[in-house]
């Protein structure tokens, strides 16, 4: 059955039926004009991210459930990168009239499953027909009384650390775009990010001075921290161990795996700066340090081993 | 200059520059991973609505600023219909690469201006290229310690009242789709809804038992209240005075103006039920009453002058 056959309200009721999770944060879920979500400390963290077919995902590369996982992860990671705990998602689905309703249902399953990893619940949304399959997600979160970790607090002398996978999604993207389907680790990493959400609030409590999730690419996203903080950041390339499947894939494809690691986006790892005496658990990999910078422009404040990185334009521009 | 020429970050910075409003609710605005919004009573109302070009708006019928007003209004009205005060908007803009950046800037102006009517501010968002111009908005709101007004509280004996314009947007849509550009009142009503946002919290304090904003059409939306409340609703046709420009347009086009009033959506008027002894100000027009219903199905619980309305299928399905 297509979404047009089911109709707007049929689609909404079938999708809503898949979301059944409960949460103490959800005071009122789908079905009214708006949802009502608890914000126990009197503040709510909120972020929106949109995924467009052909640009952020392809239906022949990713299942509906995969797309749901990715759409939720992109937003939940933004909440975690503030040091907050995700509480709720709102989802707007724009779908071609001939989309199978099972695709929308499996998308909802993926959204709900990814949200469930953080304790968050899908509380509302909207649907419309559109020629372009588009999923827009808003995530809400709770800081639990802590101060938000901004991009602007990095200080010279801080260490730069990352938690989560780096370069995996970009490697998976390259592999899929060359027509291959393995190594599975990397292809799956593109389909479903594995985000260490809980380490966001942990970083806040450890005294992280700045934090961001790696969506545009490590150097580009550290560039956002550098620009917002008015500092430079130097990354040590040898801090990264290239995992074996990535090395093999890079060799087979004739590419530099550090391109994936340093400039590949969409893993939604957390990248944070900490005072140098912070005791970091093994979840974190120290990859560089914050340095003073008297001369920089946005995105240019990041070096690799002391030099401007020459491995291509870092980051991902969703209009190019 | 097109959005592709400006690039994602150029677009974001140019759009963000138009949003400059301040609000005590906004603890952190655009520019970080997420925004931070005050939720003083420990809860936040949240709703998402999406507008798709060709389905919800046409660029030859509405200016960018009009579309911004409409996109914001559709969401802000949902917050008001809970009895809450809007505090913040998040906006995801999907745009063809050749969209002029001035269009995006004027869209932002319209969003900010409409939000400003309620005291709300645009606090964040996302952008992506897409073949289909799409604007997804999430609105947040504050109940100020009041209980939310749901769809499910209507009681037999309650009166049904509406605040705001009814049928105007639908009349404007019909006029534009027949190739006309006047009467201006109706065409402008399609372009920019005029929503009595402040009456949402007023209705809550007056003891409204149920409330909804009229986006699908009055009978369809009252049907949502009837279904959620397990009641019937009878609307009196002669409660409505057809405004002169609407009567003239209906005559010229050969249509029944009550079709617009009873089934036309997108005015985002507020429709609420109140105990019959509630003293309502002249902002409210009493249009019917809540009746007991032992037999109804969703959308079928509403009658006009005691009979099923025969003027065509009520409501608007965004997949048909």
From TrEMBL, chains A, B:
Keywords carried by this UniProt record: ATP-binding, Kinase, Magnesium, Metal-binding, Nucleotide-binding, Thiamine biosynthesis, Transferase
Catalytic activity of the protein: thiamine phosphate + ATP = thiamine diphosphate + ADP
Binding site for ATP: 125-126, 151, 215
Positions bound to Mg(2+) 4: 33, 47, 78
Binding site for Mg(2+) 1: 48-49, 126
Source taxon at top rank: Bacteria
Domain PurM-like N-terminal: 31-141
Listed PANTHER family: THIAMINE-MONOPHOSPHATE KINASE
Function: Catalyzes the ATP-dependent phosphorylation of thiamine-monophosphate (TMP) to form thiamine-pyrophosphate (TPP), the active form of vitamin B1.
Family: Belongs to the thiamine-monophosphate kinase family.
Record's protein name: Thiamine-monophosphate kinase
